Amino acid sequence: xxxxxxxxxxxxxxxxxxxISLAARAEGLKLPxxxxxxxxxxGTAGFNIAVAVGKMLKxxxxxxxxxxxxxxxxxxxxxxxxxxxxxxxxxxxxYFAQEGVFEFGAKEWGPQALQLLLSSVDCNAASLGVxxxxxxxxxxxxRGKRVGFVVxxxxxxxxxxxxxxxxxxxxxxxxxxxFSSYGAMWKGLINNDTDAAFATTITGPxxxxxxxxxxxxxxxxPHNDNAGWERVQKVGSFFFRHLATCGAGISKEKxxxxxxxxxxxxxxxxxxxxxxVYAITKxxxxxxxxxxxxxxxxxxxxxxRQTKKWVVPVHPGAVKALxxxxxxxxxxxxxxxxxxxxxxxxxxxxxxxxxxxxxSDDKEFLAGxxxxxxxxxxxxxxxxxxxx
Length: 388
Prior knowledge:
It is built from 13 helices and 12 strands. It is an alpha/beta fold. Residues 4-22 have low confidence and may be disordered.
């Protein structure tokens, strides 16, 4: 580089940085220079979408985003709770954490006041993928087969049970095989250690399984089977009927009637700064065109495609961004207020239970909390959501 050019280089770099800073300032955003998100394992849809969002934040706003993969819900939320992450790309575990059930009923956790930024519903679905060499073509044929579970991941495990319920099957009707993480479970399917595993149809491990010697299919959940769907929603109230047109072995030409719920669901704690949550959400909305085609499922993050009136409230900072995008309404506001009240009831019930000298034994502690939780929700005239 010649001396004149070398002299100009710092000016060029400073100008680029200034442009990035001015772009963020023009939109009223206060994004930190570095952030961390947590997500499912490397290669999953949630991880890939978070990485795509991170590239947008870097290119458009100069913010470096580190995406930390974690194999289960507890591991994904721990950095967020500790303040080491700004958001987590969760699945239905966000609902279980809010409710303080399953692993989140342990004394170290309890109800978590999680709130949404944005979530995605796209052409994919979420269901049990089954190794083709099993010969299974219908959910009912999974009786006696091996189904993967992930230790510390109530979302994946409960979702598997919800899909099995379509055919009237329970956990006792299949052989549960436990794995340490989501990625390990799918490696287990490929290695013939299990026959079925839960996932979104666009996850990387499912595509890997499809091209493996075992192959992969998604047994359908026919939408006209109302009794089957009633059973699904008793176990997983957050599922809805959805026609999958993309994913491993699925296309617009070969769609499959399955079920779905928002995923990934970018969440923060209610205690996190509304300004920061607003800035992140606003950046994801205004930068949508920069990442929507960068990862399968990312198009579902569009502001006008957000799932309305879901089971977890939207963070006030995200509400502000959605209002500015013209994607908020009075009935959504009313629903959100009720969900905030629910989180307050659950939080108070947990605090009272902690003061009641609960049992030290883990199983007895959980049983006592389950009863206390049910009583508090009943007193507040709110649905339990987890009746047997």
